Amino acid sequence: MRIAIDCDDAAFDFKDAIYEHLKSEGYDITDLKYSADHDCDYPDIAFNLAEKVADKTYDRGIIICGTGLGVAMMANKVPGAFAGTCHDTFAAERLAKSNDANIITMGARCIGVELGKMIVDAYMKSEFAGGGSTKKVERMRELEKTYMK
Fold it and tell me: Tell me, what is one Gene Ontology molecular-function annotation carried by this entry (predicted)?
């Protein structure tokens, strides 16, 4: 599984800790560092990562900002990107198992690094479970096409 990670200026240290944690667990993870080469804020950072997940360059993405909310909103503007903000392990597990989301977002000003590691572990170890959620996920993807022109 190929993973992309990025953040805005509110979360550099947090992102670095998550990156190192996942790298040490053996994940194939790339730090996009979009803001290092671009004068930008979180909308551009989130959009860049979401495009790369939507086009299958990466299987999953992790975006971190102050709250995780703005980057989720922006990532969800990209067709094929399905992002959710998680600040606990149950939500992170359900993000994958029930919603088949390909991007998780977190807020560095909302949770600590150790909890962040547990959250990404729960997300990364979870796969879409199908079952009763299949119809709902298919409907999300169908409705998304309403605005894809």
Answer: intramolecular oxidoreductase activity, interconverting aldoses and ketoses
